[in-house]
Amino acid sequence: MLTQVTPWQAITTALTEIVGAEGIVTRSEELFVYECDGLASYRQQPKIVVLPTSTEQVAEVVKVCDHYRIPFVARGSGTGLSGGALPHLEGVLIVTSRMNQVLEVDLENQRVVVQPGVINTWVTQAVTNQGLFYAPDPSSQIICSVGGNVAENSGGVHCLKYGVTTNHVLGLTVVLPSGDVIQIGSALPEGPGYDLTGVFVGSEGTLGIATEITLRVLPTPEMIQVLLADFTTIDAAAVTVSDIIKAGIIPAGMEIMDNLSINAVEDVVATQCYPRDAGAVLLIEVDGLAAEVPYLSQRVMEICSQNGARQVRIAEDVTERLKMWQGRKAAFAAAGRLSPNYFVQDGVIPRTQLPYVLQEINALSEQYGYKIANVFHAGDGNLHPLILYNEAIPGQLEAVEELGGEILKLCVRVGGSISGEHGIGSDKKCFMPEMFSPADLEMMASLRRAFDPKLIANPDKVFPTPKTCGEAAHSQRFLAQAGVELF
Amino acid sequence: MLTQVTPWQAITTALTEIVGAEGIVTRSEELFVYECDGLASYRQQPKIVVLPTSTEQVAEVVKVCDHYRIPFVARGSGTGLSGGALPHLEGVLIVTSRMNQVLEVDLENQRVVVQPGVINTWVTQAVTNQGLFYAPDPSSQIICSVGGNVAENSGGVHCLKYGVTTNHVLGLTVVLPSGDVIQIGSALPEGPGYDLTGVFVGSEGTLGIATEITLRVLPTPEMIQVLLADFTTIDAAAVTVSDIIKAGIIPAGMEIMDNLSINAVEDVVATQCYPRDAGAVLLIEVDGLAAEVPYLSQRVMEICSQNGARQVRIAEDVTERLKMWQGRKAAFAAAGRLSPNYFVQDGVIPRTQLPYVLQEINALSEQYGYKIANVFHAGDGNLHPLILYNEAIPGQLEAVEELGGEILKLCVRVGGSISGEHGIGSDKKCFMPEMFSPADLEMMASLRRAFDPKLIANPDKVFPTPKTCGEAAHSQRFLAQAGVELF
Fold this sequence. Notes:
The first copy, chain A, has 487 residues and is α+β, with helices and mostly antiparallel strands. The first copy, chain A, has 18 helices and 19 strands.
């Protein structure tokens, strides 16, 4: 319906005046590259893509959307895994890739101000010679944008010790859905007024667009040691993780890979660090002062041994350390070799529930008849089961999505969460009622309306809607592919 | 005006049915004790005080307020320093002191669930035998309530390393201003949906009342060492603080006391730790594993010496350590001996601006002719200048408030904040425009309306209103004392 009344020609002209012809994409064959993010099973083209370069341009673009009441979706590098940057069929996609400037490096106060299109690793690169680093490190860090990290509150392998993105964002310049520009947070850790930084980070583009982001950077640890322990069972590895935390040690990261993942990784990258017959390997990174790290590593080794580790190795040099990590970082890619497709789930559970939940996932795997490789941020209880399937076989995608849903429900049942670090986006909105009561969701919805009364900022994401939930999750996509208008 | 139309008799009956006669206070001579919190220069009596015991009772009480559209204010122990719990002349004061149960101790997952009236130190007491502690430690910790800590996002001397209250609240049961009950946050560090925990903590009672609070507790550090360094100038102490952080060391706390404070403390508690001729003393607490603490202390000592410390002492045993802290903890009380009254200010500045700001405070002190004792959380840049005056002398309170205001504006000018840990409350709302633009404040106000569309939850606090700002800050109080109705 909207297509009949929305004056796209006038809108295109208005947007071109703001960003110039080089900042506009409208031809369908060019829009193609923007039709999905990392959740490639959902695809749709926006009407227009704009690539602004400044806060002022974003504000003007958003004012045009507000004026015509058309949806806008922000997109960074498009590496998100929950479809948060899936375009709106009748909307504008605002891409931040030309907003790629590091605006300020303040070494004295350990902060860096960036535009949202700056790539995650560039932040560390900007300060590494000064002995500083930016802690959040999603696996996609060499390509993902800081703006996208803010939208999804991204984590990484080191978030056990250092926290997720929200713990490192000090302040933001935000273009509200009205086009007004506000400053939220401050360079100080705590300020007066409502903590809008916490609300904004992780709001998945539904409250506005961050156009300048002040990040905290930390002193590079004096020493880093990586330990690799192998266990005959994944349970023993899981209990070890709890025991290390209980001993008062917070490693920078603790990652578990199961036997299926180990063999996939060894097939592909041949690290030769991971014993192929292990039930699980546990990778532990300990960092800090040179005076404390060897002592901590020693205690970690003892705890591993007490839990029956067959072997615990400390990487002898940087090369070996990187090799140990290489396997973990290649795990998703390696899973691609095990099967034509895989579906990554992202759930969180209390650490102490790890052994039980892994058993249940195993039972679900057998019940549904799909193999599941387990690779996860064990310290945080953040699971990433990789369900292996073949999209070419009719029915498999749907079955695997159902299986993934059962895993999420299991996480909620043990007091966990339906998302650890990938967000809700398009993918998981139907699971929100598993975690939140109607009153909880209504409170969040009314907060959203406070920011966005016209509901034009990334609509149809995060919140469950009767239109899409309760039907098959993909019906919207299939209808769109069939050319059916969805309004 | 409202007094003529509000059916207080019916309201009293309804509230008595909910909480019982023993949970209601309406006689003026009994209401007297509730007429102010720790900011005793603002005083007014509520119409009714209710003391509920459960979430259900709070929800029912709030529903009555919602039904009659009358304001309610929540109060814990009443130790707040910004007038956040100042009652509303035409409202209900909801006091949480009977909600004093520790509801759950979950050692495995290191969390404790409490009612809001539980006293801060009780949390640590509930887990201390298990080697755990609750980190936020306001100076009033033996009397202040966890509910009040949540409302004001309280800090303490250890928040440099451990963060403030918001970093330790995992989840909340909240009675909204409608009387609806929602769950926000979760026992997990990060969950999906908007981060309402961050918004709620520090919202000073304007978004609802927390009735169950899930707190994170931490393993007690294996070793604690306290160092006391004395300097001939406060500047040297301030530069030392920055240098310690720059060296990658995060002590549990770093506190500075100036010469005036040192002498006041020695007069009163005679610790004999603080040299009376020092320009400033710097107290540093280092904690962690037994393997790292002595090494860290050594490095801290070196940095102190490099900055010209005359002497650096490490407390030899627990007795000496507590003695060193005793002086700092008695500083506010000791200031009471220097002068009939003192006015505590609470501002934050970037750590690197400490020397400049202390100089400027000194200049303001001379300009206004009032002595200022400086005692502060130096590691966080959180200043607590104590302005000494005599309330009995007409004009002194007003002059001192003006001087306090100048200090706040100074903090904002150097990139700081008008409040570190005491909140805005009644005291500082007129300074909010110093920090926030009209668009920033409007966004916060619209968030407030999303929670509280009738504006009955602690109204007239936090946000500047033309009615009270722009006039003398105390006119409302003086009018009230004169018996003038303020509606």
